[in-house]
Amino acid sequence: MLNDMRNYSKKIRWGLGLFSLILLLLASCKKDKYYFDGGKSDPNFKGTMLQYLQSKPVQFDTIAQIIKIAGLEKEFQQDELTFFAPTDQSVRSALKNTNNYLYQTGKDTLKVLTDIRPQIWRKYLMMYMFKGANRMKDYYQLDINLKSVYPGQNYYSYNNVIFNIGVIFDDINGIKYAGYRHLTIGYVTDLNKPTDSWVSADISSSDIKPLNGVVHTLNTNHIFGFDYGFVYDVYAGK
């Protein structure tokens, strides 16, 4: 009797283990289709760029609010533009840094987004906005270690700040430039050294196409404003 019970218990554990494995494999298959097969997802969004951002509250709820505070709703609804979209996490990190600085210097900290002047939000959002609808295929190749051959290309943002934008071609299995391709954008901090003074940000997803342009999403570890100028501008404007 005891042996029968042990055998029965083993069968149950084996069955549960097999069932869990099947569920895991099914989940992996679904995840693979989403993450690895670009043909399975539709990059087109049937709405304006502002509507697209509003439809992704986890990533862009704060960004959508800032667009309204900055008075840029018309541009995000009507202009044909390319937006290198910083995520809400980037903004939250910037606000945390700002509040730390305000606290240390004896100024009142920020409570709500409207505590920051619209002109400051406008200035920094426009750094991420570019005229025209450019997908990854529209940008030149960039090799950080061989800029003389593959330099990317410089572009002016909406507020005439210069950025270098390019596509990095990774190596694979010893074959140069044959691997994964991804966009990067670099803020040119010193015009006297236009190829050596970049603050760069990588793009986590690219080529989302609302009706009036293209959205490329920046990595969540990106610093909003590309450096700490945002913190100092908020401090000076308080």
UniProtKB/TrEMBL annotation:
It comes from the Bacteria. Residues 59-219 form the FAS1 domain. This is FAS1 domain-containing protein. InterPro entries: FAS1_dom_sf, FAS1_domain. Pfam families: Fasciclin (PF02469).
